[in-house]
Amino acid sequence: MDEPRKHILITFDESLNDLRQNVLMMAALSERSLATAMRGLFDRNEELCNSVIADDESIDQLEKQVDKEGITLLTRFQPLASDLRQIVSAMKISNNLERIADQAVNIARKARKLNQNPPLPEVALLRQMYENAAAMFTDSINAYTQADVPKATGLIPRDKRLDMLNAEIAGKLTEMMAKNPSRIPDYLNLMFISRHLERVGDHATNIAEDTVYAAAAEDIRHSTQGPAAHG
Fold it and tell me: Helices 81-115 and 184-216: crossing angle, nearest 10°?
């Protein structure tokens, strides 16, 4: 009498694994899009910018697939406790990954506009911003795949530093607008790109929070502290 039950459990585990694999595929594609968009900006390469915009549809379709699979798991198996958290977290992380891909598209579109005009040395201001945002993104996905709560909670203060860096860049670019009014539209586009990178950090933080929820059953949103210690 145990065989059918065993078969159902195997099917659930396989389905949950498929869901997680699609989330990780989304992460890889979104990470690539962000890197390509920034390369399009730094290298002044319109073809790279165009490829980011063209690839966005496949990421959108993957998000829909994750939602579909997640709903199927919830309705078919009616999972409890930790399994339920795994499914809900995967669906929420998928949404944040789609939004990171959207930020990459926004960056690519603004980079195309910038590349039509003479180079601006202030583009270099965005390198540190990008390196920090990209590292947060990578670490948030690693925390998710490893169910690493300390690594996930470590992203919270890093997000604050990214916010400060964004504010510093906005201040420097505002000064340049006063000195070089003819390039104000270009400086504004650089400010927008910095803001898009700051949003990547926000979404990486959201992924980290969902990771903690899945792994430790704690909601650390809007909290200045990490999860409570458990004996």
Answer: 170
Q: Which CATH number fits domain 2-216: 1.10.1040.10, 1.20.58.220, 3.40.50.150, 3.40.50.10580?
A: 1.20.58.220
- pLDDT tens-digit series, residues 45-90: 999 999 999 999 999 999 999 999 999 999 999 898 889 999 999 9
Degrees to nearest 5, angle at CA 69 with 65 and 74: 150
Tokens 């920034």 correspond to 38
What does the alpha-carbon distance between residue 214 and residue 207 come to, in Å, rounded to a whole number?
10
| Burial profile 132-168: b = 16 or more Cβ within 10 angstroms, e = fewer | bbbebbebbbebbeeebbebbbbbbebbeebeebbee
Residue 39, both tokens: 């390369």
DSSP 122-138: GGGGHHHHHHHHHHHHH
Residue 130: its pLDDT value, please? 98
Give me the residue spans of the domains in the chain.
2-216
Q: What single-letter amino acid sits at 180? A: N
In this prediction, residue 103 carries a pLDDT of: 98
Among positive and negative, which fits the CA dihedral 204, 210, 214, 216? positive
- How confident is the model over 6-34, as pLDDT tens digits? 445 668 999 999 999 999 999 999 999 99
Model's pTM, two decimal places? 0.90
First to last CA, the chain: 38
Query: Could you give the CA distance from residue 210 to residue 140 in angstroms, rounded to a whole number?
Result: 10
Tokens linked to 132: 């920090």
Task: Round to whole Å and give the CA distance between 207 and 211.
Answer: 6
